[in-house]
């Protein structure tokens, strides 16, 4: 029976993640289907930034992998026999599923999903929405091609009720499937025998789900603006676009205890084109916020690292560094005192019209991006307060003086 699709797209098929759709079931089976729906939902990971949850099933013969997965909230496991599943269920509270050929069943011998092995475009075409017979599909990609087929699956199944998972043999491969066409597949079947892959995949979810939180930003009043001379400043070019009007920022500062919000070069000017991927972030000694509540020196950034991009409301996301460009340029020193406390913070920035700090939202027509060349004593800017002591970028509790 073909999968029924809604007229409007449902991001990530969130409502159907790893759950049996009951429209094709006989009335006497509806109650058991609902029970299975509730059980399988338990394996979903926390919501991703796009709002949909991602499902993780674990396929392993290693008890250490099972333990690591259960400790991280994933309790749906695939087994080749009921005997093994029963044995493992006696040592941990898990939800076992059983593989029989190319089909997956639950403990009540009800069909949960079908496995489709894909190694060619013609095989991929067979699992298009109009052709499949079950709601949940586990795709096992064979061969070297994975990214493009996964993108085709995401596009074909958008707005459909069923869930599509891909078999992944390591955490990196799982990430590819979870990010295909930005939206990603509904989840993955992590087929691994190394617990490190469980840990890495959970860390990946943690980093992405951190971005749903807000950073607390504080107003500070500029108390000093001074041109100081030459220094080596760092331009950070990201692999993401920071769009005009969004006010996306990177937190940087001379002191670990207080970070300023430096605007990207996304604004149009008369003399230079917009570079919405770039933040002229400050000199080499300055701190930049990176995922995991850590900091890094700007001089330590390189291609492939992740940084935190923030807007004036404190909403943030991660972005990958494409390149770092260090050049000698004239610098300006900015100091600011927080309005609701005694903290004083400072930052060096290139003395140029394209470099700006972010101030509080003034409402309609209010200026929020303030070029450092126009900055004056009394202007308000936004800072992020945090613990001052850091060791290799990690916040620690110790006595420290920064000046």
Automatic annotation (TrEMBL):
Which keywords accompany this UniProt record?
Amino-acid biosynthesis, Aromatic amino acid biosynthesis
* Residues annotated as domain 3-dehydroquinate synthase N-terminal: 53-205
- Say yes or no: keyword RNA-binding present: no
Q: Which GO terms describe its biological process?
A: amino acid biosynthetic process; aromatic amino acid family biosynthetic process
Supply the Pfam families for this chain: DHQS, DHQS_2nd
* Sequence ranges assigned to domain 3-dehydroquinate synthase C-terminal in this UniProt record: 220-403
Cite the PANTHER family for this sequence: 3-DEHYDROQUINATE SYNTHASE, PTHR33563
**By what name is this protein known?**
3-dehydroquinate synthase
Native source organism of the sequence: Triticum aestivum (Wheat)
